[in-house]
Amino acid sequence: MEELEHTCPLPRTTLIEPAIFTPETSCECRAPHEKLTVEQARLGTPVDRPVRIYADGIFDLFHSGHARALMQAKNLFPNGYLIVGVCSDELTHKYKGFTVMTEDERYEALRHCRYVDEVLRDAPWTLTQEFLEKHKIDFVAHDDIPYSSAGSEDVYQHIKEAGMFVPTKRTEGISTSDLITRIVRDYDVYARRNLQRGYTAKELNVSYINEKKYRLQNQVDRMKEKVRTVEEKSKHFVYRVEEKSHDLIQKWEEKSREFIGNFLELFGPDGTWKQMLQERSGRMIQAFSPRGSPSNSPPRDFSPSRSPSPPSRWAMPRTSPPTSPKGASASISSMSEGDEDEK
How far apart, in whole angstroms, are the C-alpha atoms of residue 173 and residue 152? Predict the structure, then answer.
């Protein structure tokens, strides 16, 4: 049993290391390898070895669509062991076209996918029975759309007829062709981007005239960005001024209401100031008013026996008022004569 476990690769349980490469020789699994049906594999049998699933492709510009397809293939059966075959640059350029990534870059991209247990380099374009037996493959996983290539309407047709094909679903909206189309469509944008990042015109295969045009456009974009930044800062400054002005007006209104309230409370009809004036006026009137005589003081005696005080020497004689102008002049002359006698 220990020998079987040692010689039969098992699915990865940790992700601390990349997937292994398939050895050049045949599969080293020495456990009995009977042919399985899809129903048997879904039940989790056999217990002495995993179900070996093979998925192949180009995997150029490895993206989420690739990863989702491999995730489906890995989880087709309870004890699945996923082998991913990657075609070489020579085969790919011959049957499909030029790739962005080299074969070594594509190999390494697959090795670091969490669903992959083993990467088979230089995979064949068409699967033969000899290849399937050599690597003890139980099932082949791929999307169910017929794949016409190398003079065949569907390179997986014989696999489907043998009952070894299990379909996966494509992820809509993402593919290597879509990514390349985006780059070609926005070629000028990416060329300017890389020039700005330090790549030379020779590295980008850009002509002298286009290089100058792209650099001028980059300068114009930088100027636009500066203007946009200034505008944003100005808008922010104006907003802050408006916000502070609103706060100041609100505070001024609150202080004004408070001042008016205090003023009315102090100087209003029933205000504190009026009460203070009334209290002070009352105290002043009380201070200057004569005090009343004591009730037990004897009454003053106005008896006729007491002689009145002698008249003052300056007291003027009481005369009756003149009845006519002549009488008034006569009285004035008599007063002047009396004054001369005194002198």
Answer: 27
Enumerate helices (H) and strands (E) in the chain, giving the number of each. Answer: 13, 6
| pLDDT 10s digits, 318-330 | 555 555 444 545 5
Residue 28's pLDDT band, with cuts at 50, 70 and 90, is low
Rounded Cα distance between 49 and 33, Å, is: 8
CA 275 to chain centre: 61
**Residue with the two structure tokens 């999307």:** 143
What H or E segment, with its residue span, contains residue 282? Answer: helix 272-288
Tokens of 275: 């009460």
Q: Is the pTM of this model over 0.70?
A: no
E strand segments, the chain: 20-21, 51-57, 80-86, 118-121, 139-143, 165-168
Residues 9/120/58/67 CA torsion (nearest 10 deg) = 20
Q: What are residue 55's DSSP bridge partners?
A: 84
Q: Is the pLDDT of residue 1 over 50?
A: no
At 64, phi and psi to the nearest 5?
A: -65, -30
